[in-house]
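Input/output pair, single chain:
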Amino acid sequence: MRGEDDATMVEQRLRELDAHLRGPRRLKSDLLTEARHGLLDAVETYREGGLTATEAQRRAVAEFGSPAQLAPAYQVELAAGALRGLSLRVVALAAVAFVAGDLTWQGSSWGGSPPPAGYQVLSASVGWVWAAAFALAALGLLRAGRSARGDGAADRTVGAALTGILALGVLTGSALFAWSVGLWDAALTWPPMIIGAVVAAAGYLWLARAARTWLLATR
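Output:
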């Protein structure tokens, strides 16, 4: 049987490892739980071999390795998980934007007024930016599905490009909304436009949290 005394050194080593890791909380918890089970199995095996509880823990923890030795491999997996989470959010938000974007304008009182050429260029740019973000997110998901441990350098490249294009998407999208309000005062009181702005703002915050998690995991 495993008792609390059997896990003292094990839990201390896991707390030390936890302090070295950054990334998605659920994934980190799963990795630490897996490590705990492995360590406790080792402790139990040593005790069945005749070692005392203290010596069994000491040997299991020593063979497990130090946090400095273990953290890099765990961190690669956490970074891959963070990229997967960010990519999933981008795919979801981009799909919503593609489907519902035009709905904010349909039936508006200013819908028949042609905007300036610069506005049309900016509007088209927003679409292209989000299309690029969708493609990069799909690549991020593909990479996550091909390797359990991930390829740190390649994942960082994809994540950095995705984070950069997201920042550009937020800037161009915000600029387009501000320009729309400047061109058409009625936009501020048009319900679909208001709902769209709220959803977009919430989506940007949702993506920002995932991007921050990825940045911390790869730092």
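The CA atoms of residues 77 and 149 lie 5 Å apart. The first helix runs from residue 8 to 20.
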